[in-house]
Write a structure and sequence with these properties.
The complex is a heterodimer.
Chain A (H helix, E strand, L loop, with lengths): L10 H12 L4 E4 L4 E4 L9 E8 L16 E7 L5 H11 L5 E6 L2 H16 L4 E6 L19 H13 L5 H14 E7 L19 E4 L10 E4 L3 H16 L6 E8 L5 H17 L3 E8 L9 E8 L2 H8 L2 E2 L4 E2 L2
Parallel strand pairs in A: 3-4, 3-5, 5-6, 10-11
Antiparallel strand pairs in A: 1-2, 2-4, 7-8, 7-12, 8-9, 10-12, 13-14
Helix pairs in contact in A: 2-3, 4-5, 4-8, 6-7
Chain B lengths: L2 H17 L1 H11 L4 H14 L1 H4 L4 H15 L4 H15 L8 H19 L9 H16 L4 H18 L23 H19 L1
The chains are: A alpha/beta, B mainly alpha.
């Protein structure tokens, strides 16, 4: 294992400390409680937007704390859900008396820990709404799985509901938009390489030079199928087709296209994927009217990408375009 | 079984989880996210650090302290699952100064009940439940036949080990391994393995008494 770390057990803390130092104008890092909080939190009469999950997906979630997106993030150990204590501390820190929205990616650990945290916060008299993202079309949503995983849509959702919350909208409306965004988006990912969790010291799976994993999640877990490596155009087709079918996208519809890198893939390759995606969608007369390309929800140093398509309507587009100023996403201000 | 035996049991679990950290994480790599050993070790190290304040507690308070400590430190699914299990186990032995054979079985039943209530898994889904359910059945059978605490816990641990091995050919339908569908077959479930370790430690402490 070759990594830029000090001690394996200090990876998350050391990184949070750096983040706090780098972005002191936007956020503060509470190392004691292991939370990242918007600098001026709680914003009175604004719904607090809180997300959390394992570390190793940077910039998600801490990099999205700031103006117009998250009010707080709870980073767990690498690929491990944070614990209810963190979520409760963060909930209290962002409660501006308008309630708090918990954004949870659908993984058993995250769901169970947030469930316990919401129970505790409600005992404090804080109004909580929870939204679980589950946009990964690689997983069948059936009795035989823990349900679809929450992946790329989470980033888009955090931005969009953060934009609405900034206007002072009530909790119910913010939660309703969050559920709409989740239902409008689907994703699928692939890996060219595995990644190495520092504490494990070795790659989470073996993948030979000429192989790839299709249908991966974001925790270094293997995917649904292992195939021979294909061209970028073919890979884009494999990822985009199930998304388009699942969303039942029709000619004339408008989408946001999100090409995400898994952490170890350079932008030059992500733009090749975007080019293919653009051709596929144009061929179906589906219009990409917004896009996002880069490493936004990652699996450490894994090479690979994911594609997310989000069906746009006026409301979603408006809050996507709304000003945002966070370490990792900033525009409009 | 006294509150000092509970401390011995927890101490043994902490030792075994430390020794098996890498093993559990390795089991978790192909079908999970390579963190089960690290997480469990972190949780029981935190429990271990609380021993000075725990030795004077009654058994129920000790078990509840383990529960809240695991919830606060483990993360992942295992934190809420084992946390709820220990909280319920504590609830089942409220105000007992010493646990009889039937108390221990009641404690195990509540432990399993907590995991099922929180995780909603059933037998055959490749989870902790697959080690703990046969263990509880075995313990109940032994209790009905008037067996000693040592025999009850030994049979429970043996049944848990079989249950754990039986997860190898299973198709996972709960938790992160379920994302792999048929590719989860052929791997031993890490959660069932840590459950077996806990019951094995219980049996060892009870046979030493």
């Amino acid at each position: 294992m070759k990594k830029l770390i000090n001690k394996v057990e200090d990876v998350v803390n050391d990184s949070l400390a750096g983040m706090g130092a780098a972005h002191a104008n936007l956020l503060r890092v509470d190392l004691e409680s292991q939370i990242v909080v918007r600098k001026n939190a709680p914003v009175q009469s604004k719904v607090g937007i809180l997300s959390g999950g394992g570390s190793g997906h940077e910039p998600m979630h801490g990099g999205y704390v700031g103006i117009g997106m998250l009010d707080a993030a709870c980073p767990g150990a690498i690929f491990t859900s944070p614990v209810p204590d963190q979520m409760l501390a963060a909930t209290r820190a962002v409660n501006g008396q308008a309630g708090v929205l918990h954004i949870i990616k659908n993984y058993t650990g995250d769901v169970l820990n947030f469930e316990m945290a919401a129970e505790l916060a409600e005992l404090d008299g804080i109004k909580i709404e929870s939204v679980v993202t589950n946009d990964d079309v690689a997983v069948q949503d059936s009795l035989y799985t823990a349900g679809r995983r929450g992946v790329g849509v989470t980033v888009l959702l955090e931005k969009i509901v953060g934009g609405l919350a900034e206007t002072g909208a009530p909790l119910e409306q913010v939660a309703a938009l969050a559920r709409k965004v989740n239902s409008h988006g689907r994703s699928m990912g692939m890996a060219l390489t595995a990644c190495t969790v520092p504490a494990a010291g070795e790659p989470t799976f073996d993948l030979s030079e000429d192989e790839m994993e299709i249908g991966i999640g974001i925790h270094g877990e293997p995917g649904r199928r292992r195939l021979k490596l294909a061209s970028a155009a073919q890979i884009t087709e494999m990822l985009a087709t199930p998304i388009i079918e699942d969303l039942e996208l029709k000619a004339g519809e408008q989408v946001l296209a999100f090409v995400n890198g898994m952490g170890g893939t350079p932008l030059i390759e992500l733009y090749i994927i975007y080019d293919s995606l653009n051709r596929i969608l144009t061929g179906k007369n589906i219009r990409i009217v917004r896009n996002l390309i880069g490493n936004y929800i990652t699996s450490l140093e894994m090479a690979g990408c994911s594609i997310t398509l989000l069906r746009l309507d006026d409301e979603i587009t408006r809050y996507w375009d709304a000003p945002v100023y966070t370490p990792a996403l900033r525009w409009g201000m | 079984m006294t509150n000092q035996d509970i401390i011995r049991w927890l101490d043994r679990i902490a030792d075994e989880l430390r020794a098996n950290t890498h093993y559990l994480t390795q089991l978790d790599s192909p079908i999970g996210d390579a963190d089960h050993g690290t997480n469990m070790n972190r949780g029981f190290s935190a429990v271990h650090a609380k021993f000075p304040t725990m030795t004077a507690m009654d058994i129920a308070t000790q078990l509840k302290t383990v529960g809240t400590t695991l919830v606060s430190t483990v993360g992942g699914a295992s934190g809420p699952l084992y946390g709820t299990a220990f909280l319920r186990a504590g609830g089942a032995v409220a105000s007992k100064q010493e646990l009889t054979a039937s108390d221990i079985v009641a404690m195990l039943e509540a432990f399993l009940g907590g995991i099922i209530a929180r995780g909603k898994a059933q037998v055959g889904e490749k989870t902790m439940v697959d080690a703990l359910t046969p263990a509880l059945h075995a313990a109940k059978q032994e209790l009905d036949q008037g067996a000693s605490i040592a025999d009850i816990t030994a049979k429970a641990a043996a049944a848990a080990e079989e249950g754990m091995k039986a997860t190898i050919p299973m198709l996972a339908t709960k938790g992160r391994a379920s994302y792999l569908a048929e590719r989860s077959i052929g791997h031993q479930d890490p959660g069932a393995t840590s459950s077996w370790i806990m019951l094995r430690c219980l049996a060892e402490v009870c046979s030493d008494r």
